[in-house]
């Protein structure tokens, strides 16, 4: 299990350094080890991260397949963070593929999980994604409402952020943990 976790963590580092091919290779090895050791919790997480990496690399078919499997397994084992992240990623892919029904369904489920977990960062990033979807659909009023919910939630946020996920959904969010002022209208970029 340690080797699988190490490979997974190395993959996340390579992804952050702009090396998606290396990240995918390491995640594939991690996934194999997790399946061999029947680590379903780790498998769920690795499937979601692999889907996110593939989505960022433009491999929509593989990303969707891995996200579907990762979301299903995350739900089965009760891994809320992984399920939430998978739903956000899949919603973004659906938005990009002009499938607002799937995107809306996934974002509604992600928001439910974020609220259940009482995780303000998850809630804010989900609202960010909702704003993008609503703006794309031409509902500027609803998009503005979602955008208005992002900055106040993140004003005092200092915990771990998911920068690769933020990159996937086009979020450019500045928080109190950055060397920037607390987010307001000028520091939360328009998600459209």
What do you see in this structure?
With about 190 residues, the chain is mainly alpha-helical. The chain is about 70% helix and about 0% strand. The chain contains ten helices and no strands. Helix 3 packs antiparallel against helix 4 and helix 3 runs parallel beside helix 5.
Question: Brief description of this entry?
Answer:
This protein has 192 residues and is mainly alpha-helical.
Overall average pLDDT: 85
SS summary, helix count: 10
- Which sheet architecture does the biggest sheet show? none
Structural class: mainly alpha
Amount of helix: over 70%
Rounded to the nearest angstrom, the radius of gyration is: 16 Å
Unreliable residue stretches: 172-192
* H and E order: HHHHHHHHHH
Number of strands: 0
Strand content: under 5%
Amino-to-carboxy terminus distance: 41 Å
Described by the principal axes of the CA atoms, the overall outline is globular
């Amino acid at each position: 299990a340690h080797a699988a976790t190490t490979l997974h963590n190395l993959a996340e580092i390579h992804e952050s350094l702009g090396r998606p091919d290396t990240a995918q290779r390491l995640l594939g090895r991690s996934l194999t080890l997790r399946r061999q050791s029947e680590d379903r919790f780790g498998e769920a997480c690795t499937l979601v991260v692999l889907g996110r990496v593939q989505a960022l690399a433009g491999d929509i078919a593989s990303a969707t397949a891995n996200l579907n499997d990762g979301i299903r397994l995350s739900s089965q084992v009760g891994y809320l963070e992984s399920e939430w992240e998978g739903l956000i990623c899949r919603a973004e892919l659906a938005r990009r593929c002009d499938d607002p029904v799937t995107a809306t369904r996934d974002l509604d489920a992600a928001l439910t999980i974020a609220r259940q977990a009482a995780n303000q960062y998850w809630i804010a990033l989900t609202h960010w994604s909702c704003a993008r979807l609503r703006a794309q659909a031409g509902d500027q009023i609803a998009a503005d409402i979602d955008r208005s919910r992002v900055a106040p939630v993140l004003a005092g946020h200092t915990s771990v952020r998911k920068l690769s996920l933020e990159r996937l959904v086009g979020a450019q969010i500045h928080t109190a943990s950055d060397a920037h002022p607390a987010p307001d209208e000028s520091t939360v970029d328009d998600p459209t």
